[in-house]
Amino acid sequence: MPKSEETVLQNDPNEAKSGAHSSETSGKNEEEENFCLDNCSPRLMETIKEVSRMSIAHEIMVNQDFYMGENVLPPNSTEDKFMETLYNVFWNHLREQLLSNPPQFTCALELMTEVKEILLSLLLPRHIRLKNEIKEVLDMDLLKQEAEHGALDVSRLSNYILSLMTLLCAPVRDEEVKKLHSITDPVQLLRGIFHVLGLMKMDMANYTIQSIRPYLQEYSIQYERAKFQELLDKQPDLLDYTKKWLTQAATDVITPCPNPPDTSSSSSTACSSPNEAAENSDPPNPVMVLYQGYLNLLLWDPENEEFPETLLMDRNRVQEMGSHLRHLAILASVLLVARSFSGKILFDSPGFVDKLKGITKAVTEEFNSKPEEAMLHVSEQVSQEIHRGLEDLGFAALSSEDTACLIGQLQNITEKDNRVRSVIDQRLLLFLKCCLVRGMQESQQHFPEGLNHIEGELTELGQKFVKLMHHNEQVFGPYYVEILKNTDTLAQAQETEAEPV
User: Fold this and answer.
1) How many CB atoms lie within 10 A of CB 121?
2) Which range, of 123-137, 245-259, 352-366, 456-470, averages the lowest pLDDT?
3) Cis peptide before 102 (omega within 30 of 0)
4) Distance from C-alpha of 340 to C-alpha of 343, rounded to nearest angstrom
5) Residues β-bridged to residue 69
6) What angle do CA 153, 159, 163 make, to 5 degrees?
7) For 238-268, what is the HEC assignment?
8) What is the DSSP letter of 9?
9) Band (446; pLDDT cuts 50, 70, 90)
10) How many CB atoms lie within 10 A of CB 254?
11) What is the dihedral of CA 445, 449, 452, 456, to 10 degrees?
12) When you count CB atoms within 10 A of the terminal residue's CB, does the N or C end of the chain come out lower?
């Protein structure tokens, strides 16, 4: 018998609208899994498998966009052809049974059994009358007796099921249920019913997730911590990478961070006190050590396997945030350089900044693989846009020398030692640290200079980052406290700092 529609965990509601995108995501996950199987150590593989068992409750808590979506297989793929063949075998067999003389109802009864279970799962506690009615109409013992006497009325049952679906479906499924009423072929009708019931079951799962989310917070924290403790009992060295991570974070907190001359502004200084407090504490403030560790994750080398065990479930999510942060750094740097050549009037003109942001974002993915080519394209497009904007406002266009200087400064943004990029990188991390320490609302009141044109994008990233890290802190805080208290983590960091280079 075919299973009801398979579902896949989704992060973005827009993904369900595109089968191709779902397929691409599925393929990407498979590639990542194969990479891990080929390259990860057995110890890390086992840890990943164990931790993944508690990932659903964790995903619901940290991802507000979490939902169950329809799993669409890649068109014409081997898996798609296999599943389609498998389904066709069942439905063709059902048709043969119903058309035989006398009719056979083995497949129909199996189908009705599963349909009954799905219908009952869609009911709310208050649907007492409907529950009793379904059990009475779809009484399998009675239906088997009718089948044995050749009196099973499949059409009557199908119409009854359709009436229930009309009553129980979410508004988003109204049109799909309505289309089923026009199907006259009994097998095609049953196939359509089964498909839409699978979607309705998925809708109910999403409704349940949204309903229980407010009550899951405390349970999720306790559950994740308990499951991790079970792993720790089996693998006493499970926190080795976490200890190394915190040791490095402590070293970073102790090490003075030189501030470029042009970062001393009122907005940036307003957020600098948490870092100063951390540097002046002796030993370092454990909370600041942890927050520094969280910031370090955004700069983590994807090839480094020594990712803290307490954050393995969020490794991909954190790496995506890190990638997003790098793209925002490039975007802010481009805007800062462009502003110095175009002037305040042009930059404040309607839509001009949005045009420059669109140019830069259009080649965002190329910055990962071909940074020089991507920045060459951006510099040429930005230069043309500034020329056009100045002419439209009646100002003189940039001279050839200024144009060459503009393009050169933009192309240099991808260089590691680029001054503008270094300033922007520091301000981005400082803002995210403020978000961790002081919260989003207060941090937005002291937004760093030079980042105001990406305030919306950075705020959105900050909210996701803070929510994820604070959840991690709630779950694994006791382990972090013990590591910093009962080991030489902070002492090792201080010794490392004291050693001559």
Assistant:
1) 12
2) 245-259
3) yes
4) 6
5) 8
6) 145
7) CCHHHHHHHHHHHHHHHCCCCCCHHHCCHHH
8) E
9) confident
10) 21
11) -60
12) C
Structure token pair of residue 74:
């890649």
Amino acid type, 173: R
Task: State how far the Cα of 209 lies from the Cα of 66, in Å rounded to an integer.
Answer: 9
Query: How far is CA 244 from each of CA 171, 235, 293, 307, 477, rounded to the nearest angstrom?
Result: 52, 17, 10, 9, 16
Burial (CB count <10 Å: 0-12, 13-18, 19+), residue 80: middle
**And the tokens for 80?**
């798609």
Place of tokens 């992060």: 11
Closest CA to 235 of 484, 75, 96, 42: 42
Q: Which two tokens stand for residue 466?
A: 């803070």
Residue 54, token pair as written in the block: 């508690």
Residues in contact with 259: Cβ distance below 8 Å, sequence separation at least 6, in sequence order: 426
Residue 67 host element (H or E): strand 67-70
* Residue of 11, 12, 22, 69 lying closest to 199 (CA atoms): 69
Q: What mean pLDDT comes out for the span 413-418?
A: 86
Q: Which two tokens stand for residue 449?
A: 């200079």
Q: Measured between alpha carbons, how far is residue 216 from residues 153, 209, 229 in Å?
A: 45, 9, 19
What separation in angstroms does the CA of 186 have from each of 102, 134, 154, 183, 354? 17, 21, 8, 8, 55
End-to-end CA distance of the chain: 69
Quick one: tokens of 45?
């593989």
Q: Which residues contact 478 (CB under 8 A, 6 or more apart)?
A: 225
Spatial distance between the Cα atoms of 415 and 371, rounded to a whole number of angstroms: 9
Q: What is the DSSP string of 283-330?
A: SPPHHHHHHHHHHHHTT--TT-----GGGGGGHHHHHHHHHHHHHHHH
Lowest mean pLDDT among 30-34, 211-215, 396-400, 487-491: 30-34
Q: Give the span between the Cα atoms of 95 and 92, in whole angstroms.
A: 5
Closest to 304 (Cα-Cα) out of 322, 330, 284, 291: 322
What residues are paired with 9 via a beta bridge? Answer: 68
Q: Which residue type is seen at 117?
A: E
- Do 231 and 47 meet the contact criterion of CB atoms below 8 Å apart? yes
C-alpha 347/C-alpha 386 separation (Å) is: 9
Contact 467, 294 (CB under 8 A): no
